[in-house]
Write a structure and sequence with these properties.
Elements lengths: L17 E4 L3 E6 L15 H12 L9 E2 L8 E7 L2 H12 L4 E8 L7 E11 L4 E5 L7 E13 L2 E8 L6 H8 L23 E9 L6 E5 L17
Parallel strand pairs: 4-10
Antiparallel strand pairs: 1-2, 2-4, 3-4, 5-9, 5-10, 6-7, 6-8, 8-9, 10-11
Length: about 240
Amino acid sequence: MANIVPKYINHEITDADILYEDNHLIAVNKLAGDIVQVDETGDEPLDEKVKKYIAKKYNKPNGAFLGVVHRLDRPVSGVILFAKTSKALDRINKMFKGREMHKTYFAIVRNRPNPEAGNLVHWLVKNSQKNVTKAHDKEVAGSLRSELNYKLVGEHNGYYVIEVDPITGRPHQIRVQLSTLGCPIVGDNKYGYPRGSLRKSICLHARRLQFIHPVKNEPVVIEASLPKDGFWEKFEQWIK
C-alpha cells in the first residue's frame, strides 16, 4: 500500500494568529506545516501571508514591508517574529547575532533523557542537498558550534516533556542535538523517530521569545499557545 502524503492546506492569516504587533514588529503563532519563506514546493510562505494581512488591515494597496529575522523548520510550530520596518529589521538581526533574544522551546520525546538536565555542545554540518544536519562531538571542517540547555519537566503515558533553551540558532539544531542525546522528537523520522506524522508535524513548539524592544527599549515577552491537535493538550500542565 502506497504511503499517503497529506496535501498542504493553505490558510489565511487572521487576528487570531497574531501574538504581538506594534509599528515595528509583528509576531505570529506559526502552524506546523507552514514554510517561513518561499521554497521549491511552491506553497505560499508565511511571510507572504503576513504581508497580505498587514496590507489588508491597514489598507496598503501597494503592499507592506516585512523582514524575516529568524526561521522555524516547516514541521515546527510556535512564535515567529517579523520586522515591519527596515530599522527594526536591522536592529533585530543584530540582536539575534548578539544572542540577545531568549528562546524557549518544548519537545515531546519517547525516551527519558539521561541526564535529565544538562548542556549540549556539538559541531553541526548541514547537507543542503539532503536538508539534513549531522552533529559531531568535535569541531570538523565546515562545522558550526551549537549549544543548548535542556531539562526534563514532565512525563505522561510513556512520553517525556523537555524544555529547551537554545543558546545558538543553527539549522535543525534542537532536532539533531536531542536525537544525539538519544531522544528523537516524536514524529521526526528525519532524526531517528521511527515514524513520521500524518500531519507533517513534529512535537517541537517554540513557546516563548523574550527580548528588549529594539526601538522602544522595553522588555517584550511573546508566548505562543500550543497546537490544538488532541495530543499537545495532554502535556499542558508542564508547559509554562
